[in-house]
Amino acid sequence: MNIGIIGAGNIGATAAGLFANAGHRVAISNSRAPESLRDLVAELGPNVETTTVEDAAAFGEVVLVAIPFKDYETRPADQLAGKIVLDAMNYYAQRDGQIDFDDLRSSEVGARRLPRARLVKAFDSMYYETLATAGRKENRDRLVLFIASDDSKA
Ligand SMILES: NC(=O)c1ccc[n+]([C@@H]2O[C@H](COP(=O)([O-])OP(=O)(O)OC[C@H]3O[C@@H](n4cnc5c(N)ncnc54)[C@H](OP(=O)(O)O)[C@@H]3O)[C@@H](O)[C@H]2O)c1
């Protein structure tokens, strides 16, 4: 399938490589020009291309968002409408600054900005080095990736 990725750091780049190796087509982006990811996509092979945030969102049947939580409002809501959006973001006050959530969880606050997306919380509890090195196709010692969503079909 076509998978868009917003955020090309530890989680985004690691997941891009794993998706590509599994045969999916990946379009990956960061907040800068696509050329800034040229070395990364060369390393990840022909299934991965670099693009803008908006085009990555439009490209993916599934779109992984792996950016610092403080930037959650920059996600392109129009392009993500109707898409399955994998939300890897975690909120850390020391990194993201103090944000007032009222009585909500950070994921709920993030979800309010993407009311038309089919949100799935995923990858947020997986350390990227574990994701990169410990996955196995054999049945023994496989990794567990926890997911949660209000949309069971997504
Ligand atoms: N590291 C982990 O093991 C891990 C595990 C689970 C969940 N998470 C969560 O996943 C998210 C990403 O973590 P990470 O460790 O991968 O971070 P990271 O290595 O710092 O990578 C963040 C990526 O997002 C890009 N970015 C920043 N702001 C952006 C924006 N507004 N639009 C598009 N791209 C943007 C950055 O590139 P530019 O700044 O160049 O745009 C960079 O490529 C965080 O919310 C984190 O809490 C991380």
What's the topology here?
Blueprint: E1 2-6, H1 10-21, E2 25-29, H2 38-44, E3 48-50, H3 53-59, E4 62-65, H4 77-80, E5 84-87, H5 93-96, H6 106-112, E6 118-122, H7 128-133, E7 147-148
Parallel strand pairs: 1-2, 1-4, 2-3, 4-5, 5-6
Antiparallel strand pairs: 6-7
Class from secondary-structure proportions: alpha/beta
Percent strand equals: 15-25%
Overall spatial form? globular
Bound molecules: NADP nicotinamide-adenine-dinucleotide phosphate
Oligomeric state, counting identical vs distinct chains = single chain
Computed CA radius of gyration, to the nearest angstrom: 15 Å
Q: Please give the count of helices.
A: 7
Mean pLDDT: 96
Instruction: Calculate the terminal CA-CA distance, rounded to whole Å.
Output: 14 Å
- Measured as a percent range, the helix fraction is 25-40%
Per DSSP E runs of 2 or more residues, the count of β-strands stands at 7
Helix-strand pattern: EHEHEHEHEHHEHE
Compact description:
The protein has about 150 residues and is of the alpha/beta class.
